[in-house]
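Notes on consecutive records. When two proteins share a document, each keeps its own sequence and its own token line. Never mix them. Below: protein one.
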Amino acid sequence: MYLVHTELLHRKAELCIPQNLADLLRDLARPDDGVEHVVVHPHPGRGVTVGVYLLSDRLREAEETAARLCGRAVTEIGPLSGWAVGRSEAPLLAPYDLDGVMDH
């Protein structure tokens, strides 16, 4: 299982983050995404960090899956129209490029 942080960004000062965003994201997840749990951490005036816990064989695959899920969210969840998907990476591991290590 991996935890991936994906940024959802918007520059408006008055953000309209749905109260049930974690539930909406879980509902958008497809069975083959391997999503186990979703948490949302708001950053007023900037956006949110979405924590996606998911089952995956590889770190890079987990990061890409979380980014795709958030990409679907900004397309399909009305209040997120105009938002952008930022970085999508596992915390602490991404700066060290440990993907090759984790694949063995």
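Protein two starts on the next line and is unrelated to protein one.
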Amino acid sequence: MDPLTRLLIRLAQWFRNPPSPARIKLILAVVALCLVLVAIEKFVGWPDWATAQRVPIHR
């Protein structure tokens, strides 16, 4: 199924049966956390310790 169609079906279900206020707060908190992480990565940069490096294979 097309991702856009799946999203529209999910939004229609949410419109018919809205989630509880606690679930809405949880979703907004997760989205806010993701935006904060993206902003930190954008303005501060990616740390060197978190970058994967290739390990040479000795045979």
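For the record: Helices lie at 3-16, 21-43.
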